[in-house]
Design brief:
The complex is a heterodimer of chains A (211) and B (288).
Chain A lengths: L1 H25 L3 H19 L5 H12 L5 H9 L8 H24 L5 E4 L10 E9 L6 E10 L2 E9 L2 E2 H40 L1
Antiparallel strand pairs in A: 1-2, 2-3, 3-4, 4-5
Chain B lengths: L1 H14 L9 H29 L2 H25 L3 H16 L8 H4 L9 H7 L7 E4 L3 E4 H12 L9 H18 L1 H10 L3 H17 L23 H4 L8 H4 L7 H11 L16
Antiparallel strand pairs in B: 1-2
Helix pairs in contact in B: 1-2, 2-8, 3-4, 3-8, 6-7, 6-10
Classes of the chains: A alpha+beta (211), B mainly alpha (288).
């Protein structure tokens, strides 16, 4: 009996290991990736996150979601034509600040989650495509479904999201005018400063709510 | 009026450059400030109180009641947009929800898998080929465009709640509907507050993007694919060599497009279309 369960456990471990290897070797399809990450994050929120605890939400996002985003691509696209004017150092600061802002905003969106259901749409793309859009719809009784589109690109280290469109609103495009205005008023440094100020202002209420 | 126009001119001067989609930015910013003040003083507090006092089930009933009435006009718009099947769906929703759903307070149709749509006359105009026109912000009504404002006149005219006759009942139901809508947006408005550097600009761009998406029922022709996103984490091959592999679109050609009004934008895309075959993921949009 004991031997049998031990054998089962080893088999299970081996299978799990083989699965990891397989996943690394042949790589998850982008729609399967979106589905598994979404369900995992929602599962954690439902189980472990109490009263929209922001610190916990942010750590979940950093662990589970961030690895699948290409923040350099998002930032360069949001900064648009001014991106080439930035020095490498300015670029990396822009990416950091924009990432912080997006993570905070994302945490707030997740805090608002209340048991909506998801409809994961089958991917309409050829297996050879390296730039695809994965559609997920959030279903809620009494309102029309909300469509979320993940624009993803195949990178050497896996599929990476470079834009998210919620209800047709592209996150990256929506920041473009704002960023452009900031650069026009205060140059690249002005934009970095504006992002820093914004991020600091978001820290305060969260810290206050902790007490 | 003169004062408004003057403040409009002043507003344009301070923001510098100005967005071609928003020639009345000064006026719009003034209306926006008024709306913000109104929302802080009345809209948000009332909605918050409603959210805190009325249990979730009650809010659900109220939301559905008004959503059900709206389905009639949504169906009419779908018909006008040449989507009779969607129109039938909308009216079927109204039929089921008004009867089995008890005057619409339960959304049994959604549970049966008959999905709700989002249509209005502004979208119908858009479907018929009307461009956005300049962006406009109206007191209390919020973001709009010239096209959507014209649409609103029809929406209001055919709104059973706004046309309801004993005036006392009408005002009460309009207020309840507005409160219910604002309460549903409490989370969204907080997120907007957090996300935006300049809330006016953020809201405007979101509105224009959203409307474009709605007119195309969630499948607008791809614009974002063409946008410059050079220099990602790993440096790629020099541009001259990489060019033939990528869908042909240099940042120089793509950048000014972002600032163009949508009708010009789509005209340009039409011209470029043969050079940019869309991959399979956007073609079968009629499937759903």
């Amino acid at each position: 009996m004991f031997a049998k369960s031990l054998r089962l456990a080893t088999a299970a471990a081996a299978a799990a290991f083989a699965f990891c290897l397989g996943a690394a070797a042949q790589e998850q399809s982008p729609d399967a990736l979106v589905k598994s990450v979404t369900l995992e994050v929602v599962g954690i929120i439902q189980k472990d996150v109490k009263d929209g605890d922001r610190r916990k939400l942010i750590s979940v996002i950093e662990d589970k979601v961030l690895p699948h985003f290409n923040f350099t691509a998002m930032t360069s696209s949001a900064v648009g034509r001014n991106w080439d004017k930035a020095t490498p150092e300015q670029k990396s600061r822009l990416v950091d600040e924009f990432k912080t802002l997006l993570v905070r905003t994302y945490a707030s969106s997740l805090a608002a989650y209340s048991n909506q259901r998801f409809d994961f749409r089958p991917l309409r793309a050829k297996p050879t495509d390296t730039d695809v859009t994965v559609n997920v719809r959030v279903l809620q009784s009494g309102t029309e479904p909300v469509q979320i589109d993940y624009d993803m690109e195949k990178r050497p280290n896996g599929w990476k999201v470079w834009d998210v469109r919620v209800a047709g609103i592209s996150l990256v495009a929506n920041y473009r005018t704002e960023f452009d205005n900031q650069v026009r008023q205060g140059g690249i440094d002005g934009l970095i400063k504006a992002l820093q100020t914004k991020n600091k202002s978001l820290e305060k209420p969260a810290a206050g709510a902790k007490k | 009026m003169a004062a408004l126009l003057l403040s409009g001119a002043a507003g344009c001067a301070t923001t510098g450059g100005g967005d071609p989609r928003d020639p009345a930015e000064g006026f719009n910013r003034a209306m926006y400030s008024f709306n913000e003040t109104f929302d802080q003083a009345i809209g948000k507090p009332v909605a918050t109180a409603y959210h805190d006092v009325v249990p979730e089930q009650g809010r659900y009933w109220v939301r559905n009641f008004f959503a059900n009435i709206a389905d009639l006009w949504i169906g009419a718009n779908n018909l006008l947009q040449g989507k009779p099947l969607d129109a039938v769906t909308d009216w079927a929703r109204f039929g089921f929800n008004s009867t089995i759903g008890l005057f619409g307070i339960n959304d049994v149709a959604s549970e049966m898998g008959i999905e709700k749509h989002d249509e209005d006359f502004g979208q119908t105009f858009g479907r018929w080929g009307a461009g956005d026109g300049p962006y406009l912000v109206w007191p209390l009504l919020g973001p709009s465009t010239v096209r959507d404002s014209a649409g609103l006149l029809f929406d209001f005219h055919f709104d059973p709640v706004l046309q309801h006759d004993p005036k006392g009942v009408r005002y009460a139901t309009v207020a309840l509907r507005a409160t219910s809508k604002r309460a549903d947006l409490l989370d969204a408005s907080r997120i907007l507050e957090e996300a935006a550097l300049d809330k006016y600009v953020f809201q405007r761009d979101a509105y224009l993007q959203r409307r474009r998406s709605l007119i195309y029922d969630g499948n607008p022709p791809r614009a974002s694919r063409d946008l410059p996103r050079a220099e990602e984490t790993a440096p790629v091959a020099p541009r001259s060599e990489a060019a033939p592999a990528a869908p042909v679109s240099t940042p120089a050609a793509a950048t000014p497009r972002a600032a163009l009004p949508p009708h010009l934008d789509s005209a340009i895309r039409l011209l470029e279309e043969p050079a940019q075959p869309h991959p399979g993921d956007v073609s079968g949009s009629s499937g759903s």
